[in-house]
Every structure is written in structure tokens, then in C-alpha cells.
Specification:
The chain is of the alpha/beta class and 309 residues long. The chain has one domain: Aldolase class I (TIM Barrel, Alpha-Beta Barrel). The chain has twelve helices and nine strands. The protein has helices at residues 24-33, 41-53, 66-77, 99-106, 127-139, 151-155, 159-173, 184-187, 190-202, 221-238, 253-266, 282-297; strands spanning 2-5, 15-18, 56-58, 91-94, 112-117, 144-148, 177-181, 207-209, 243-245.
Length: 309
């Protein structure tokens, strides 16, 4: 399908996006095939540790406090007892008002500070307000911004507005990485997901991300596959790598390994690094920790021994 985007940013000229339609049956069959791979022994242990290194630990609740954030940052720096040789996570993700606290706790550690912005999770606010929120997070020390698109604009066909907002946020981010959240559960169709991915990439997103984690369904294998294929096609056309972040609903180590296999077989080994792939699923860490401990000790520990706050 061919969609014409009419951006207002800097009075840019209209341009066409040619986006292939998604074969729903084949996408779901292909995604299901990744659940049948068998990964064992040292390869499994390496995969589990890789998954930890790709996690964005997240606390996005109204009851978030500096004390809760301190606990989360400590977990980010040492997810397990040192004898398991488990790596640090990739980032801690918070609301803008907690970025400054996160910076004092994580500065110099190598763990990035990500902040949701642009009226997360709804995206329903004037652009001026969204940009002020981004600039505040940047001023306080954010390394990454996770923005949400205006799904109302997208679903009403105002693709130019969606493009404009992403482009404006990208500019406001400066040197920070921008992750564009599509909220795929509200986009409903794979064709919409593919189109939204193309718009986000064209507008300058460094990453595309499935979900806010606030609605269901969030990340699924078929939806993530559709987004990975958009990244692959962009790479073939331009040579530019774009990152991917499935978020919400990924709760088990087994699922995490399935996503890693899908990334490897769709995009290649170059994307199997925290620089290009992230998990937005804090609940996932507990199960991955349990599996790592089981492989090293031969017995399961209690989930409570690894639980996040």
C-alpha cells in the first residue's frame, strides 16, 4: 500500500511511504515456529544472561518513590548474587520526575536512564506540553526517551501529525536515543503495525517499541515479527540499523529465548546486543534469574528470592 505523508514540520514536502501488506496467516505461522526451537545447556545459559543485559527495568506507577527507585537501581546493577556472574541490565526506565534521582544512583555505572514522555501512556496532550516533558527529562540526565505516538491521530488517518510529533521529539532529544512506542494493542491490525513502524522509522526513531505495558495485548511474537521485518526492509534499503523493544506481557525465560531466536533469524546476530534490542518487561527478570540459578545449582529457588519491589 502507498500512503502519502504531509508533514508540517519545517514545511517539509509531502512524501509517499510504500508499505507492504501483511499476510496475517503467514506472520502468525512464522512467529509460532520460533516457539519450537530447542536451546539447552551452555547456549541456554548464555541466552538467559544476554536477555538480562537487554532488559529495561521499569517502574511507572503512581506510587513510585525515591526509595522504590533506589531498590530498583540496586537490582539493575546486581540482578543476582555475584556467584552467578549475571550482567547488569541495559537501563532503568522511570517517569521524568524521577530522572534526576536515577542519575545520582546510576551515574558512571554504564546502566542507561530511560524516561517515558509525551503524555505517557495515552499520548493525549498538546505537542508543546510533550516537548517540555522531553526537555525536562533531558535536562535532568536521561540517556533515552520512550515516547508514545498519538494513536487517535493514527487511527483517524492523520499520519502527518504522527510523523510531525515523532520528528519534533527526535529533535528535542538531542543526543539521546528515541524509542517510539506504537501501542500495538490499540492499532488492532498487522497492517497498521507495519505502517506505524514505517512512519516511526522515517521520522527518526532510533528504536521502535511495541507497547506501554498498560493495556492488553502488549508484546506478542507475531506483532514483534511484523516490526522486525519493517526494520529489516529499512536496513536493506538504506543500510541503517534500527533497534527493537518488545514491552509488556513477556514474563518467562522461555519466552525471552523465543524472542532472541526470532531476532537472530529475522535480522541477524548484529541485533543481538543491548544497543539494538531491549526487553521492556521488569517481571521477566525474576523468572530469568530463577532459571539461571537452576542451571548452576541444580535446584529452583523461591521467586521471592529474586523478586523486584
Amino acid at each position: 500500500m502507498e500512503i502519502t505523508i504531509r508533514p508540517a514540520v519545517k514545511n517539509g514536502p509531502p512524501f509517499a511511504l510504500i508499505v507492504p501488506c501483511v499476510d496475517k496467516v503467514m506472520a502468525e505461522q512464522r512467529a509460532a515456529s520460533f516457539t519450537k526451537r530447542s536451546i539447552k545447556n551452555e547456549a541456554k545459559l548464555s541466552g538467559l544472561k544476554l536477555a538480562v543485559s537487554m532488559m529495561d527495568l521499569t517502574t511507572l506507577e503512581g506510587a513510585d518513590t525515591p526509595g522504590k527507585l533506589r531498590h530498583l537501581c540496586a537490582k539493575a546493577l546486581q540482578p543476582m548474587d555475584g556467584r552467578y556472574e549475571c550482567p547488569r541490565v541495559a537501563a532503568v526506565c522511570v517517569y521524568p520526575n524521577l530522572v534526576k534521582t536515577a542519575r545520582t544512583l546510576l551515574d558512571g555505572t554504564g546502566v542507561h536512564i530511560a524516561s517515558v514522555a509525551t503524555a505517557f501512556p495515552s499520548g493525549q496532550a498538546p505537542l508543546k506540553t510533550k516537548l517540555e516533558e522531553v526537555r525536562m527529562a533531558m535536562k535532568d540526565g536521561a540517556d533515552e526517551i520512550d515516547m508514545v505516538i498519538d494513536r487517535g491521530a493514527f487511527l483517524s488517518g492523520d499520519f502527518g501529525k504522527v510523523y510531525d510529533e515523532i520528528a519534533a521529539v527526535r529533535e528535542a532529544c538531542g543526543e539521546a536515543h528515541l524509542k517510539v512506542i506504537l501501542e500495538t494493542g490499540e492499532l488492532k491490525t498487522y497492517d497498521n503495525v507495519r505502517l506505524a513502524s514505517a512512519i516511526a522509522i522515517k521520522a527518526g526513531g532510533h528504536f521502535i517499541k511495541t507497547s506501554t505495558g498498560k493495556i492488553s495485548p502488549a508484546a506478542t511474537l507475531p506483532v514483534t515479527l511484523v516490526m522486525l521485518e519493517a526494520i529489516r526492509d529499512h536496513y536493506f534499503a538504506t543500510g541503517e540499523m534500527i533497534g527493537m523493544k518488545p514491552a509488556g506481557g513477556i514474563r518467562t525465560a522461555k519466552e525471552a529465548l523465543q524472542y532472541l531466536v526470532m531476532v537472530k533469524e529475522t535480522l541477524g546476530a548484529a541485533w543481538l546486543t543491548p544497543e539494538w534490542f531491549r526487553f521492556g518487561a521488569s517481571g521477566l527478570l525474576t523468572d530469568v534469574n530463577m532459571q539461571i540459578a537452576k542451571m548452576r545449582d541444580g535446584t529452583y529457588q523461591r521467586a521471592a528470592d529474586f523478586a523486584l519491589p
